[in-house]
């Protein structure tokens, strides 16, 4: 653990990258945890802006909310399943079911408010 990790309360947690339907089933559909899934692209400036935001959310809610990312280079079957037309797209899941989706950059505070509203027991 580095000195910055110590000040933050622990090591940083990064979103889990998934690239296939089996990983999607395991990480998103077959979990009891709420899931925040982001679909991103390398050529998308707002997607790059989301990287530190999602790192902060994954770190703050480690073991309470799963944060996963799907790149535009993922398996076509997974991308078709997600039905995403623009990046970044955020999809929120509860008990494996989609409960919301939105497109575009969201600041860290938005995630905290959304988690508090949708998952008040966290």
Describe what you observe in this structure:
- By secondary structure, the protein is α/β, with parallel strands linked by helices.
- It has one domain: Glutaredoxin, CATH 3.40.30.10.
- The protein has helices at residues 3-8, 21-29, 45-60, 76-82, 108-118, and strands spanning 16-17, 35-40, 66-71, 89-94, 97-103.
- The chain has a five-stranded mixed beta sheet with strand order 1-3-2-4-5, with helices on both faces.
- It starts with a helix and ends with a helix.
In short:
By secondary structure, this protein is of the alpha/beta class. The chain is 40% helix and 22% strand. It has helices at residues 3-8, 21-29, 45-60, 76-82, 108-118, and strands at residues 16-17, 35-40, 66-71, 89-94, 97-103.
Radius of gyration: 14 Å
How would you describe the shape?
globular
> Which sheet architecture does the biggest sheet show?
5 strands, mixed
CATH H-level homologous superfamily name: Glutaredoxin
Per CATH, the class reads Alpha Beta
Regions with little confidence, pLDDT below 50 for 5+ residues: 1-7
Within the CATH hierarchy, at the fold level, what is the topology? Glutaredoxin
Total domains: 1
Mean pLDDT: 93
Going across the major beta sheet, what is the strand order?
1-3-2-4-5
Helix-strand topology string:
HEHEHEHEEH
Number of helices: 5
Category by helix and strand content: alpha/beta
For the terminal residues, how far apart are their CA atoms? 25 Å
Strand content: 15-25%
Assign a percent range to the helix content: 40-55%
Name of the CATH architecture: 3-Layer(aba) Sandwich
Number of beta-strand segments:
5
């Amino acid at each position: 653990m580095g000195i910055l990790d110590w000040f933050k309360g622990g090591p940083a947690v990064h979103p889990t990258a998934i690239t296939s339907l089996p990983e999607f089933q395991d990480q998103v559909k077959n979990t009891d945890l709420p899931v925040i899934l982001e679909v991103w692209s390398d050529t998308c400036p707002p997607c790059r802006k989301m990287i530190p935001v999602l790192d902060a959310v994954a770190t703050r809610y480690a073991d309470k909310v799963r944060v996963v990312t799907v790149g535009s280079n993922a398996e076509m079957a997974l991308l078709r399943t997600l039905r995403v037309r623009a990046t970044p797209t955020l999809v929120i899941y509860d008990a494996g079911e989609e409960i919301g989706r939105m497109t575009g950059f969201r600041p860290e505070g938005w995630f905290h408010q959304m988690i508090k509203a949708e998952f008040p027991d966290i």
